[in-house]
Design goal:
Layout lengths: L10 E5 L5 H9 L8 H8 L4 E8 L9 E8 L2 E9 L8 H15 L4 E7 L3 H9 L3 E10 L6 E9 L2
Parallel strand pairs: 4-5
Antiparallel strand pairs: 1-2, 2-3, 3-4, 5-7, 6-7
Helix pairs in contact: 1-2
Length: about 160
Amino acid sequence: MGWFLGRKAMLVAMPAEPGDLARMADIHAVSFARPWNEADIARLLAGKGTTALVARIEGDGSAGAVGFVITRIAADEAEIITIATDPARRRSGAARELLHAAIRELQRERIARLFLEVDEKNAAALSLYRKLGFRQVGQRKGYYGSGKDASGALVMELDLR
């Protein structure tokens, strides 16, 4: 009876749907100092070349998204606009699953390079990105926050070829 109790929840990444906007906004609000609301996210997704994937727990239709990533393609390059995971689901593999799915999608589109910016103080994100093969190609000083508490953004790139 109890063989499945210790089983890790299976996360799946899939295209975001209009019904995901509220959950995406909620996740963004608890993940960033300057949160985006539903209208902000909808406007962003209406832009050319912009798509979103959400991570869900397989078989749990009631839980909604536990994380999401938004990417934008321009010519043969793409950028991760934002990626966020529900704080209760961090370190569960949701961000990794989202990134793997986004990378596969971009490779199918024959995109050559993927860029992102990350807070230089975000050790968990930096570790994940480096494990996936991203490398630092630039830095923006004082990008996050203001005054003496401001931190820089690292510009990272992944070759998708």
